[in-house]
Design goal:
With 244 residues, this protein is α+β, with helices and mostly antiparallel strands. It has helices at 26-43, 48-53, 175-183, 188-193; strands at 2-3, 6-12, 56-67, 76-83, 91-99, 104-116, 121-123, 160-161, 198-203, 212-221, 224-231, 236-243. Helix 1 (26-43) packs antiparallel against helix 3 (175-183).
């Protein structure tokens, strides 16, 4: 549904979307948000298929998610997304997630880039060659996605391999997979006693099939966790901040 420059999709939270507490897994929620964004740009004829023909793809650069309440198994939700005034290389997009009764559950702001698939280079948004309207009186929340501090490369790194289920259609690790990897670092008991309230992600480089990564993670403040992912060449892949 597309009304007043806002695109909406509805989802049913299924059993394979939730954790052992029957609440939606945050990486699954992010995937639903991204799917809504893909539907929006596809509606505007600038989706995955159209950009593939031009050798381009959308890449998420930053995202800040605020969680008021996580939907549960069998809940129906509506995700609204809309564009904001774009810059030369950053495409700004907001989200709001609502319950079936209209309660605001989550909200997010994000920044996307247009990337040349063959040159692996960011291109200016003027290359889209399309007019895009946006609601001037609506925002998920004020500000831009904050920068997450980088942690040093770990002294004794433990490496993991990006596997098939981590990948997306562009043959890179799906952006929601990085968040899942970091959340999976929490212990069972800690996760049962806390709910994640905010997620901030800064992406730097992409991982490809079979590439290895490690995670540096520490509690920076009381119940705030900072993580930096590195590849095997000690290059930063992304930074994640979780608040509980």
């Amino acid at each position: 549904m597309y009304v007043n420059n806002v695109f909406s999709r509805e989802f049913l939270i299924c059993g394979y979307d939730v954790d052992h507490n029957c609440r939606i897994v945050i990486s699954k929620l992010l995937s639903m948000m991204h799917e809504t964004a893909w539907s929006h740009v596809s509606y505007l004829k600038k989706g995955w298929r159209e950009l593939q023909e031009e050798g381009l793809f959308w890449a998420l650069a930053k995202l800040h998610l605020k969680i008021h309440k996580l939907p549960k198994w069998n809940d129906k939700i509506r995700i609204d997304t809309w564009a904001k005034e774009r810059e030369s290389i950053m495409f700004l997009r907001d989200y709001e997630v609502f319950s079936e009764t209209g309660e605001l559950l989550c909200c997010a702001i994000s920044e996307w880039m247009l990337v040349d698939y063959h040159a692996n280079k960011i291109v200016r948004l003027e290359k889209l060659n399309t007019h895009l309207d946006y609601p001037r009186d609506r925002m998920a929340f004020e500000g831009r996605v904050p920068r997450v501090p980088r942690l040093d490369f770990p002294e004794n790194p433990v490496f993991y391999t990006a596997v098939l289920s981590d990948l997306d259609m562009n043959q890179h690790v799906n952006n929601a997979s990085y968040v899942r990897w970091v959340i999976d670092r929490f212990s069972y008991d800690f996760y049962n006693q806390h709910q994640i309230k905010e997620v901030v992600i800064n992406y730097t480089n992409q991982l490809k099939p079979g590439e290895k990564y490690c995670i540096a993670m520490q509690e920076t403040e009381s119940e705030n966790f900072n993580a930096t992912l590195y590849n095997e060449e000690q290059k930063e892949v992304c930074k994640v901040l979780l608040s509980v």
